[in-house]
Design a protein that fits this description.
This protein is α+β, with helices and mostly antiparallel strands and 79 residues long. The chain has 3 helices and 3 strands; from the N terminus they run βββααα. Helix 2 runs antiparallel to helix 3. The mean pLDDT is 85. InterPro entries: CENP-P (IPR027801).
Amino acid sequence: MIIRSPQLPGIYMTIFWKIDVSKEGVVKPTLELLLKMPDQARELDTKKVMENGSDYFQSLLRILGVEASIEALIRTVCL
């Protein structure tokens, strides 16, 4: 899934969702967030949001769960 903001061209987020199922039937979902932005915009990111975004997303997953985390991410990008 790729999330892009119309107000911020060149910046996008990609969510990779992998689901592993063991032979015993144990399901283990893995979600990762990759962030992409032009080098010029990266210089303006003084709070290092893009650099640490993947870690922030993993924290959201632990606290809110999958659906709420993705929804929060979409809401943030679309504002």
